[in-house]
UniProtKB/TrEMBL annotation:
One of its GO terms (cellular component) is cytoplasm. SUPFAM superfamilies: Phosphoglycerate mutase-like. SMART domains: PGAM. GO terms for molecular function: phosphatase activity. This is Phosphoglycerate mutase. Residues 207-230 are annotated as: Disordered. It holds the Pfam family His_Phos_1.
Amino acid sequence: MTVILLRHGRSTSNTAHVLAGRSEGVDLDDKGREQAAGLIDRLAELPIRAVVCSPLLRCRRTIEPLAAALGLQPVVDERLSEVDYGEWTGRKIADLTKEPLWAVVQAHPSAAVFPGGEGLAQVQTRAVAAVRDHDRRLADEHGGDALWLACTHGDVIKAVVADALGLHLDGFQRVTADPASMSVIRYTQLRPFVMHVNHTGARLTSALTAPPSSDGEAPPSDAVVGGSTD
């Protein structure tokens, strides 16, 4: 099973340099709407079987054009929602950098718990569980490998990618997830394979059109010794 982790397009809070968190009504800006419309071409001809998204408006707006083009009804999953930043929600990033907790978020995020909100370790647990659950559900529905898309938020994507890479959560700040970027993970019985991180190019096609073949090759759960054969 392969998931495309899509970050929502650029939002009004991104350009205002405000930590939106779970604030209601945060929509895409003009650039974000262009990014949303552009997903149709970026994902052209890929056999996407399902679209799952965070309940927040900026994610729902991001996948609307693509879901309509694919003829799919998005599934909303609360576990893919933005971090609950608690008392940090709605504050200017410039002000938050002066908070003592900011240094913890940067250097030791596994210990970071936002006042009145949740901890980043909780975020990783719920988000990875959501991705794994949808993977199993879609594998059952489609009889094996299928490609699907999850539209969510930057820190959520970074936490899921860190888990797939086998990184401790304290290393998740090394991962980048720009607005409208795509990170791709193929899950197998043995291990996940991280195929793309922060992809912002015109087309996302590499190795996503079919599951790997095992005819004369290593089993799909095994890494190729010596690197890719392509």
